[in-house]
Amino acid sequence: MNLAKTLPPPLRAWAERSVGPLGAVQDASHPRADSRVWDITDAQGRHFFVKQSPTPASYACETFGYQSAVPALGFGGAPRLVASDARDLALLLTAVPGTPLSRLTLTTAAHRSAHRQFGALLRRLHGSDRMPGPGRRAAAEAVEHTATTEVETHLVRAGALLTGHRRALVRRAAEHLLQLTDRLVPAHIHGDARERNALWTAAGSGRLAVVDFGRSRYAPAVQDFVRLACGPWQDRPDLRDAFFHGYGRDLTDSERQALTCLAALDAVSGLAYGPAHGDDEVTARGTRTLERLERGLFV
C-alpha cells in the first residue's frame, strides 16, 4: 500500500510566495518511491502542481523544456512553469484539465482525434527550436549513449530474462542505430511521450494537453515515437496513422529503421527496470516488443 506523501513545509512556503495562501493540498504522486507531486489549490480555487524532481538531471531537463520549448505548444497545450527552485529541485506548474488517455475508454473516433492532436503537439514541440549547433551535437550524442553505454548496462541488468538470441537481436539493433545517426532529424523531444502523459478533455470536440517534461532533451525526433509504437500502436495502427496525420509527415526510411532499433533498446530497458522495481507492466511491454520484433510484426 502506498502512503500519501505530505508536502514539506519549506516547499509549501515556497509555493505560497508565488500563488498566495493555499486552500488545499492533495498528493498526486505516481505509485513510485521517487515520485513527489502535489495538487494544490490557492484561495481563489485555482489549481497548480508542485513537483519535486527525483534527480538534478531530471530537474534540469524539465526546467529547460518548460523554458525553451513548451511555450510553443500554446495556451492549454501543456502546463506553464510559474516558478522553479534548483536547491530543492522544485517546480510550480499551472494545471491543465484532462484525464490521462491511458485511463480512458474512448470511442474509436475520439481516440483517433486524441492521437492526431498528440502528433500535432509533438510536431510543434520538435519544431519549436531552430536547432542550434550544440543541440544537433547533443542529439547525435544521445544516440551514441543510448546505443553503447546504456544498452550494455541494460543487457547486464536484464540477466536471465534474455535468451542469447534476443541479446544478439538487441546488439544488432544498437549497431544499426549508430549507422543511422547522421540521417535522423534532430529535435527538442518530450522524452516520455505516451498515453499516460497525454491528458484528454472530452468537452466539445475534445482537446489534448501534454504533461511531464522530466526527460525533455535534444535527441532525434523519432525517439519520441517509441513508447507509442511499443504500446497502443501495436494493436491499433489507425492510431499511428492519426498521429502522423497530425504530425504533418510520415517517418523517413531512416526513421522507420531507427524506430525498430529503438524499440529493441526500449524493450531491454524495460526488462532491466521492470523486475527490479516490481513493475509488471513495463516487464510485459519489453517481452511483448521483443516477441513482435522476432516475428517481424513490429510496426
Concise structural overview:
The strands form 3 sheets. The protein has a 5-stranded antiparallel sheet, with helices on both faces. It is of the alpha+beta class and 299 residues long.
Structure description:
This protein is 46% helix and 15% strand. It has 299 residues and is an alpha+beta fold. The protein has two domains: 9-94, 2-Layer Sandwich (Phosphorylase Kinase, domain 1), CATH 3.30.200.20; 99-295, Aminoglycoside 3'-phosphotransferase, Chain: A, domain 2, CATH 3.90.1200. A hairpin with a 5-residue loop joins strand 8 (198-201) and strand 9 (207-210). Helix 8 packs across helix 9 (280-295).
Largest sheet properties: 5 strands, antiparallel
CATH top level assignment of the largest domain: Alpha Beta
CATH architecture of the largest domain: Alpha-Beta Complex
Percent helix, as a range, is 40-55%
Strand content: 15-25%
Mean pLDDT metric: 93
> What is the oligomeric state here?
single chain
From the spread of the alpha carbons, the general shape counts as: globular
Rg, alpha carbons: 19 Å
Spatial strand sequence of the major β-sheet: 1-2-3-5-4
Amino- and carboxy-terminal Cα gap: 37 Å
Low-pLDDT stretches: none
Structural class: alpha+beta
Note the run of SSEs as H and E: HEEEHEEEHHHEEEEHHHH
List the domain count as a whole number.
2
Q: How many DSSP H or I helices?
A: 9
Using DSSP, what is the number of strands?
10
Q: Give the full name of the CATH homologous superfamily of the largest domain.
A: Aminoglycoside phosphotransferase (APH), C-terminal lobe
- Per the CATH scheme, the topology name of the largest domain is Aminoglycoside 3'-phosphotransferase, Chain: A, domain 2
